[in-house]
Design a protein that fits this description.
- It comes from Punica granatum.
- This is PROP1-like PPR domain-containing protein.
- 70% of the residues lie in helices and 0% in strands.
- By secondary structure, it is mainly alpha-helical.
- Helix 1 runs parallel beside helix 3, helix 4 packs antiparallel against helix 5 and helix 5 runs parallel beside helix 7.
- It starts with 9 loop residues before the first helix and ends with a helix.
Amino acid sequence: MDEYNIKGTPEVYTIAVNCCSLTGDWEFAMTVYNDMIKKDVAPDEMFLSALIDVAGHAGNVDAAFEAVNKARKDGMHLGIISYSSLMGACSNAKSWEKALEVYEDMKSIKMKPTISTMNALITALCES
C-alpha cells in the first residue's frame, strides 16, 4: 500500500483482504496484514474475520487458528463474527475435528452460535 500512499484504517485493510477471499490468496492477505501491523493499524474483528475467511478458502485452516490465537494473545475480544468465520474455514477445509473444537470453545465461553455457524458445523461434519 506504500506505493499508492493509501491511508490505512482497519476498514481499508479489511476491504483489501476481502478481495483475496474468492481466490484464497493467503500470501497476499498476509502481505496486507503485515503492512497493517508495520503501520501500527490495529486489526479489528471484521479484519480478523476476513483474514480467517481467506485462510478457509485457501484450505489453510491451521493459519485461521493461528490468526485467532494471535488475536487472543494481542488482547482482541473475539465475538460471534470471528467464531462464525472460523467455523466456516473449518467447513471449507472439510475439517470436522477443528469444527468441533470451535463449537466446544464457543460452548465453554457460553457463546450462542448463529444459524450460519451451526450450518457450517453440520456441513463440516457431513462433508468430511
